[in-house]
């Protein structure tokens, strides 16, 4: 029976060969190659689809219903209270109850403080909910989230007493929030 395993002449054993080649190959090939043209086409298609969906949802809303929702801000107020007070408090409590590590807890709290997105409008439409309220909530939570997300993170981080190097992540959270708006 013939040995079909190739051995690097610079290594003394097959193990050395594998570990040396694996370490050099890992540093060279970080991920799969994605054609830049395909990546650009993907971006254009996704942006176009999102614009069509949001325009379609906007067309389902009557102006009188939108004005009525703005005149009665109780729904938006309750939604914002839940979005920026209740959800972050619950995620903080869960992170504390599960005794998560510092970075895991921070990630969970960041997700709990993020404002709602436009997919919630689509889910509201599909479920037969109040699309006008959902659109207003999305706009309000995105606008208010630029200040509330970093503030919530700061308060929760202070509660966990992990202010040290984590405070730099407040700047990252603010940058992420502004990136979402642009």
From TrEMBL:
Classification via Pfam families: SBF
Subcellular location: Membrane
Coiled coil start-end: none
Source superkingdom: Eukaryota
UniProt entry keywords in alphabetical sequence: Membrane, Symport, Transmembrane, Transmembrane helix, Transport
InterPro entries reported for this sequence: BilAc:Na_symport/Acr3 (IPR002657), Bilac:Na_transpt (IPR004710), Na+/solute_symporter_sf (IPR038770)
Gene3D superfamilies: 1.20.1530.20
Residues passing through the membrane, by range: 44-66, 78-98, 131-151, 163-181
Recorded topology in the membrane: Multi-pass membrane protein
Family affiliation: Belongs to the bile acid:sodium symporter (BASS) (TC 2.A.28) family.
Protein name stated in the entry: Uncharacterized protein
Species of provenance: Tegillarca granosa
């Amino acid at each position: 029976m013939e040995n079909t395993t190739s051995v690097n002449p610079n290594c003394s054993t097959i193990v050395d060969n594998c570990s040396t080649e694996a370490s050099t190959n890992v540093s060279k090939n970080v991920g799969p190659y994605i054609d830049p043209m395909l990546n650009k086409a993907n971006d254009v298609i996704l942006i176009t689809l999102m614009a069509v969906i949001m325009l379609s949802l906007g067309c389902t809303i009557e102006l009188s219903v939108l004005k009525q929702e703005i005149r009665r801000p109780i729904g938006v107020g309750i939604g914002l209270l839940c979005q920026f007070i209740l959800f972050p408090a619950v995620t903080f409590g869960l992170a504390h109850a599960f005794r998560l590590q510092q970075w895991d807890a921070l990630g969970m709290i960041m997700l709990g403080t993020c404002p709602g997105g436009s997919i919630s409008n689509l889910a509201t439409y599909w479920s037969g909910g109040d699309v006008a309220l959902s659109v207003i909530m999305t706009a309000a939570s995105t606008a208010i989230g630029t200040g509330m997300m970093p503030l919530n993170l700061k308060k929760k981080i202070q509660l966990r007493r992990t202010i040290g190097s984590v405070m730099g992540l407040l700047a990252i959270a603010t940058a992420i929030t502004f990136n979402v708006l642009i």
